[in-house]
Every structure is written in structure tokens, then in C-alpha cells.
Write a structure and sequence with these properties.
- By secondary structure, the chain is mostly helical.
- The protein has one domain.
- Helices cover 87% and strands 0% of the residues.
- The protein contains 3 helices and no strands.
- The protein is rod-shaped and about 65 Å long.
- The N and C termini lie far apart (80 Å).
- 13% of the residues are buried.
Length: 141
């Protein structure tokens, strides 16, 4: 396989990263919406603390996602230069940057998945505990 085909494979992979990150960006918006939808029903202080913590985590993930999207965009441009001039001396540096970016994306995806599970677990817990709390509370006439 020649160098051009190798760079084309790297390009396809990088475009997949971009597509995945755009999906995660949209999914983060959904998770924020999900939390905000149930936030108004929270009455227990400990549940408020849990929700605030997960909101901070999601906000941080959103920043990281945006940062990665920007890096991937620049990476694609650099890749275009390499395809145009395959004898460039900085192809080794590009390969190292590619591996580093792949590691960053892998870490982001793992963190995202954990946070997503946590959002659903917290949402379920809050719905159950808040409903139970409101049922057990004496009604005042």
C-alpha cells in the first residue's frame, strides 16, 4: 500500500472522529435537557447537590468536546497538506499528533459514557426518591 492510501485511511478515520464528536455534542444537549426537565421537581437538598455536580461534569464535557472538534478540524487541514505533499518532513510529527488525538478522543468517549450512565441513574433515583418523598409527606389542608 502506498503512502497516499495510508493518508486516505487516516482521513476517513479522522472524519469518523469528527462525526462521532458532533453526535456527542448533540447528546450532551439532550442530557442537559433531561436534567433540566426534572430539576424543577427536586425538593431534597442532597438530590440538588447530585444534580449540580453532574451538570458541572456535563458542562466540562461540552467544553472538552468543543476543544476536540477544533483539534480534529485542524488535524484534517494538516492531513490535507500531507496528502498534497507526501514527502513533507513533518509527517512523523503528524503521526504522533494523530496518536495523541486518538488517545484524547478515547478518554473523552469513556468519560462521556460514564457521565451518560450517571445522568440516567441520577434521574431515575431522583424520580423515585422525590416521588416517595412527596407521597410520604403529610398533606396540609
Amino acid at each position: 500500500m502506498n503512502t497516499k492510501n495510508n493518508w486516505e485511511e487516516v482521513y476517513v478515520l479522522t472524519e469518523h472522529w469528527k462525526s462521532d464528536l458532533l453526535f456527542y455534542k448533540d447528546d450532551l444537549l439532550f442530557l442537559h435537557h433531561l436534567i433540566d426537565k426534572y430539576f424543577i421537581w427536586i425538593t431534597k437538598p442532597e438530590n440538588l447537590v447530585m444534580v449540580k455536580e453532574i451538570k458541572v461534569d456535563l458542562f466540562d464535557l461540552g467544553i472538552k468536546c468543543g476543544d476536540l472538534l477544533e483539534k480534529v478540524g485542524k488535524h484534517i487541514i494538516q492531513l490535507g497538506y500531507l496528502v498534497e505533499n507526501q514527502k513533507r518532513e513533518d509527517s512523523g510529527i503528524f503521526t504522533m499528533e494523530h496518536q495523541h488525538l486518538e488517545n484524547e478522543i478515547t478518554t473523552f468517549v469513556k468519560t462521556f459514557r460514564l457521565n451518560r450512565k450517571e445522568v440516567f441513574a441520577i434521574t431515575e433515583y431522583i424520580m423515585d426518591s422525590e416521588a416517595f418523598y412527596n407521597i410520604m409527606e403529610p398533606k396540609q389542608s
